Amino acid sequence: MSLIKCPECGHEVSDLAAACPQCGCPIAKSANIQMPQTPNTPQPNVTGKKRAVVTAVVVSLIIIALAGTAVWFLFFRSSDDADERVAYENILRYERDCSFDSLEVALNEYFDTYNPDAFHYSQLKDLYDRFSVERADWNAASGVSSLDAVRHFLDVHPDGFFLSCALQRQDSLFFEQALEENTQEAFELYINQFPQGKYVAEARKKMEDLDSTELSSEENGLIMEVLSRHFNALANGDETALSATLAEVINSYIGKSNPEMEDIYAYMHRMYDSGREIVFLVKDAKASKVDVAGRSIYNVQFSLEEDTYAHGQHAVALDTEAKTSEDKAEEVKPSEVKNFSGTAVLNQSMKITSLVLKQ
User: pTM, whole model, 2 decimals?
Assistant: First the structure.
């Protein structure tokens, strides 16, 4: 017999007792089925081994994941950075070479491809904003043939992307303006403003040509004298004085081609059939000279005023010119005034070869 513990309450009872005197739990039956134990023998820890295996697997997976991330960063990310660097350098090259169409395309492609975390994103975003504003301004300035528009653009963008384009445009427009004026002063001003300009050589050639075609003050004076003598002779009916102002061959004369001298005299004498007196005043004569086969030809634009008086009244009108302003009220005025625009051609001997009048 031995003492055992009640499986219900833990009270010590005899292994031969039928039930626990403390709680009434059957003892003999429980003792009969109780397995012998060896308290000093350690039991294997199966749960601990499984936990260690799981931990090892997790750690291995973490290490593999970190290794994969490192590989991706080293190879793929470095490759992406290299592509971004190439795109950035291409954009700078287009800017430097003033290839603005390519620059615009490259900038748009960059922002379509890369996010704000790209290395050069903020730098290129600033460039893109400035380029967009300036390109719009340049399109507006270059769309009109205006020096003022180009000068305004240069004032707003003195060091911009389109500086070279604007300077070239200014050069061209300034020279076009000089061509329109076609004077020594205009071409000299162009050369002073653009000493390294594209058209300097052409401007110098134009100045040399003008040296041989511009009229001297003596030539201008002779032309004015010939026209005045011609119309005075015409008004006075003086055939001798009239013929002295005309060349031997007349190409055209007041509406008639290749006239004879008799035709011109007849035109002159018809002026007096109406019993009137005519006075011509030549004004605002402007002449140019061209070289034809080594001979100078003078083209003259002028204004002509025709004043008509009754016979004898013109002499009275001349007398009143010497009177004071108080006597001017009584001076004789022409009964009719007509104004004409005239074109004349004079040969090298200062003789008229063509004369056209339009009212």
Answer: 0.43
